[in-house]
Amino acid sequence: AKEPVRVLVTGAAGQIGYALVPMIARGVMLGTDQPVILHMLDIPPAAEALNGVKMELVDAAFPLLKGVVATTDAVEACTGVNIAVMVGGFPRKEGMERKDVMSKNVSIYKAQASALEQHAAPNCKVLVVANPANTNALILKEFAPSIPAKNITCLTRLDHNRALGQISEKLNVQVSDVKNVIIWGNHSSSQYPDVNHATVNTAAGEKPVRELVKDDAWLNGEFITTVQQRGAAIIKARKLSSALSAASSACDHIRDWVLGTPEGTWVSMGVYSDGSYNVPAGLIYSFPVTCRNGEWTIVQGTDAILYPMSFLSPIAFCF
Ligand code: NAX
């Protein structure tokens, strides 16, 4: 039998955490043959709720779940973890300026970065979900200099999956037949969802999305704004922000990173820029990537089609 993999979820008492931990325990993230030990971290005011989540994990009797650590101590939470999904953070509240949220998150991510750096398993893979996701990932990277930059990523897979979902709805095709959309930039409304290389698997072979949709006005307008604004639309409808889709996308992100992307398919990940596509090196930026042997590689040559450059504004780099 395989050795259990230790997976940390921070902010585990929150709504994404509540959707995410059962998925991990069911094998959605790492495979149905991979035992896991869940490490859950939250802050003291949420300790009782966190313990309730632990009780439910026990009650669900997941065969793959070999242990649960539920704690408010970052060092205990980070010790020996192979995968870290950073969902906890300080949310922007009414009346707060971005810089106020930023300084709160700097101190949170600084402390958690050093706990991970000192106590996680070697080669621990980190996924930052908490907003501002790209910035939090960069802060974590800055304060954990011994963790290789390639091991620190942020979640834009939800935006990627939202784009696949919109195309599938528009064309009335299975979402599993749509692939190779790209999310460029930040997990924020400044992102650029790009369908210029996306295809649909049809009875007559793979066809470009643009050829099938036959509606450039929709693809260049409403499609982009729908994907960019989807988070706000979910809040409006549910009175709560996206949780099950965020959790599911976090599983997709880690699964593809660890187990590899299917042949001929790329996915979007916020990764440390090497300067590809003239995105300044050193930013955490969403690119199309393929994954093999636990490592991502930025897909090159997808810029042959011109896309608006507004997403490269300096503001986009901050949020
Ligand atoms: P919740 O407020 O339900 O949960 C957050 C949890 O984090 C709470 O239990 C809180 O106590 C905990 N927490 C706060 N500070 C902490 C710290 N220092 N250490 C550990 N835990 C801490 O938010 P939820 O809806 O679960 O969203 C979590 C984060 O995901 C938010 O920052 C949100 O903006 C972000 N999102 C990111 C997405 C992405 O695609 N990258 C999409 C969904 C989501 O909006």
Please specify the SSE layout and strand pairing.
Elements: E1 5-10, H1 15-26, E2 36-41, H2 47-59, E3 65-71, H3 74-78, E4 83-86, H4 98-119, E5 125-128, H5 133-143, E6 152-154, H6 157-171, E7 178-179, E8 182-184, E9 192-194, E10 199-202, E11 205-208, H7 209-213, H8 216-220, H9 222-228, H10 230-238, H11 244-259, E12 267-272, E13 284-292, E14 295-298, H12 314-318
Parallel strand pairs: 1-2, 1-4, 2-3, 4-5, 5-6
Antiparallel strand pairs: 7-10, 8-9, 10-11, 12-13, 13-14
Helix pairs in contact: 1-11, 4-5, 6-9
Bound molecules: ligand NAX.
Task: Please explain how this structure is put together.
With 319 residues, the protein is of the alpha/beta class. The chain has 12 helices and 14 strands. It has helices spanning 15-26, 47-59, 74-78, 98-119, 133-143, 157-171, 209-213, 216-220, 222-228, 230-238, 244-259, 314-318, and strands spanning 5-10, 36-41, 65-71, 83-86, 125-128, 152-154, 178-179, 182-184, 192-194, 199-202, 205-208, 267-272, 284-292, 295-298. The strands form 4 sheets. The protein has a 6-stranded parallel β-sheet. Strand 1, helix 1 and strand 2 (36-41) form a beta-alpha-beta unit. Helix 1 (15-26) packs across helix 11, helix 4 crosses helix 5 and helix 6 runs antiparallel to helix 9. The N and C termini lie far apart (43 Å). The model is unreliable at 306-319 (pLDDT under 50). It binds ligand NAX. Ligand NAX binds next to helix 1. Residues 10-11, 13-17, 41-43, 46, 87-91, 108, 129-131, 133, 155, 158, 187, 231, 241-243, 246 line the site of ligand NAX. Belongs to the LDH/MDH superfamily. MDH type 2 family. NAD(+) binds at residues 11-17, 42, 105, 129-131. The active site is at residue 187.
